[in-house]
Amino acid sequence: MRVDSRPIPRIVFWLIAGLLIVTTQSITRAQTSEEKKTSAGLQSPTAQQPADDAQAKPQDLNIKTLFKAGGVVGMIIIALSVAMVALIVEHLLSIRRSALMPYGLAEEVHGLILEGKFREAEETCHNHPSFLGHVLASGVTEAELDYAAVEKSMEDAATEQSARLFRKIEFLNVIGTLAPMLGLMGTVWGMIQAFHTFQLSTNPQVSELAPKISTALVTTLLGLMVAVPALGAFAMFRNRIDELVAESSLMAEHVFADYRRNLILRKKASSGARKRPPETKSANVSQ
């Protein structure tokens, strides 16, 4: 039996796109304002330049400065961070005990199975699309055969659904792997630019090399800032899936426990009836 997995809500993708647009616009505005300030400083009188230089203060190091220094690679890493946050929020909502094992579903299906209402039990499972619902529905469809078929069907359904859940959280692992690689790429590119500037300048100044080196180091920092929580969240959701899958499989076996017991008793009763010899009436012989 093949069942559909729960897709990631469309609102998550809209959230990713919206946050990416807002982040890009904020960085672009910051760069534009910085360019305007630089051009205004170049157009000011030469006599005021020493005074301006004396009053100039070093720029504070904050998150905005880091984002600006990251360049294009930094913007890509920021986009990955937005996607990471959206995925974590979605997984927190979907990979929960109440979402995978709806309350009261096992008891309701158990009662219907004992009454022999297999079709009603299957409809009840389909009305609760969840991990436990899919596993129980697979078992109910084979309930009219024997328990071996029920057990095999539930094992296959549990394996398929757990694989879907693991593939779902794999995106966090991909982000956690790509982010530091992108940071390393930005680092290499920044160092190449720094050494190229050093090679072209006859008397290179620190102010000429600092932006390139800053970009190189900032992209590495941004990549690690995204990779650490992404891989941590991936490990957390992986352990949660393992726990909930094991608990759901055990609960599904308990739902069919009485059904299995009744089958065993019925088989013993039928086999005993076949082995019992026919009763014969003894004739009374009068002396």
Describe this entry's structure for a reader:
It is a single chain. 80% of the residues lie in helices and 0% in strands. The protein has eleven helices and no strands. Helix 1 runs antiparallel to helix 4, helix 6 runs parallel beside helix 8 (131-141) and helix 7 runs antiparallel to helix 8 (131-141). The longest helix is centred in the middle third of the chain and has 54 residues, at 147-200. The termini are far apart.
What key attributes describe this structure?
80% helix, 287 residues, 11 helices, mainly alpha
Shape: rod-shaped
Intertermini distance: 74 Å
**Beta strand count:** 0
Please compute the radius of gyration using only Cα atoms: 34 Å
Helix content: over 70%
Order of helices and strands: HHHHHHHHHHH
Helix count equals: 11
* Beta-strand content: under 5%
The total domain count is: 1
Poorly predicted spans: 1-8, 41-56, 281-287
Mean pLDDT score: 77
Quaternary state, please? single chain
Largest sheet: none
- Alpha-beta content class: mainly alpha
